[in-house]
Write a structure and sequence with these properties.
Elements (H helix, E strand, L loop, with lengths): L7 H8 L10 E2 L2 H5 L8 E5 L7 E4 L1 H13 L7 E5 L6 E10 L2 E7 L5 H8 L1 E4 H11 L2 H13 L4 E7 L11 E7 L2
Antiparallel strand pairs: 1-4, 2-3, 2-4, 5-6, 5-8, 6-7, 8-9
Amino acid sequence: MVKPVNSKLDFVRRYSTGEFGNHSPTWDSLSAWSTVASSNALYHIRNRVAGGPTFYNLCRSQVIVYWHDIVRQGVDPSTLYISEMAPTSKTLFQGEVQRGVWGYVLYYSRTAKPMRDALAEDGHSVSGIIASCLLRGFLCPRSYDWLMYLLNVYEGHVVEFSTYRIEWGTLAGYNTVYWEVRNY
């Protein structure tokens, strides 16, 4: 049995090692990111604190400015990390899913925005066979199989995911990235 994910800090540490499967390319610190950052890509400053501020669609120079501004405001830099921005315009389906008493419980959106914004604007709740059909219909077979693995191995956890019209992330052959696996 795997150790449950009981904090955002624990999750991020395990996420960056690839424990939860396909994810956005991610760097632990500004210095680690700056050695590989592309001037053509967009990035996302993320937070190791649940519900903490996050900043989307930043170019290389903006990441540097935002990072230093956030730290000057008193935020501990060890609570921040950087991910490559997902191809949001190619979003098919995204949400949070977990197993419930009557099958899957799914809160989802088809809005092509970062997940927080999409769910706040146009979130829908479904469960059981409807949730199962939506997941099977949007996730490619590899992505669906991996989601089932996560739900089986991390019993009682919620899995956050985004599914795209293209393969994207750290692993080839997946149209879905897993943003978070949480039990907190």
